UniProtKB/TrEMBL annotation:
Protein name: PaaI family thioesterase
GO MF entries: acyl-CoA hydrolase activity
Superkingdom field: Bacteria
Keyword Disulfide bond: no
InterPro entries registered for this protein in UniProt: HotDog_dom_sf, PAAI_dom, Thioestr_dom
Record has Protein biosynthesis as a keyword: no
Pfam family of the protein (one): 4HBT
UniProt KW keywords: Hydrolase
NCBIfam families (alphabetical): unchar_dom_1 (TIGR00369)
Domain Thioesterase as annotated: residue spans: 28-103
Organism: Altericroceibacterium spongiae
Length: 117
């Protein structure tokens, strides 16, 4: 995936940024869907870690839903912006969007299962 940057945007949102490289492109010259899905999966855990201020080691993705709504471009950073919808004793429900300067790339929701509890 390459270098990623993580920050807390506000009390509800965390932003995971990657800089797309040529290796992330599909034959059509846009960012490959698999790259976007990997960014989304990673963002589930980084969103939870940053917003809940908890270690996430050992947790697993139970469910991941994604809707692609636009192409990702090479020239712009790709940001996954997530928020925690709900957290229970064993589960964390997260939703968000993948965006670039030119607009929305994807929308997603996921469920992470905590382990060791």
């Amino acid at each position: 995936m390459g270098e990623m940057m993580l920050r807390r945007d506000d009390d509800r949102h965390a932003r995971l940024r990657m800089i797309p490289l040529k290796r992330h492109l599909n034959p059509m010259g846009t960012i490959h869907g698999g790259t976007i899905m990997a960014l989304i999966d990673i963002s589930l855990f980084t969103t939870w870690r940053v917003l809940a201020d908890q270690p996430v080691g050992g947790a697993v993705t139970l469910e991941l839903s994604n809707q692609f709504v636009g192409p990702g471009q090479l020239e712009q950073p790709l940001d996954a912006v997530g928020e925690i919808v709900r957290e229970t004793g064993r589960l964390v429900f997260i939703r968000g969007q993948v965006e670039q300067e030119h607009g929305l790339i994807a929308s997603f929701s996921g469920i992470v299962r905590k382990t060791g509890q």
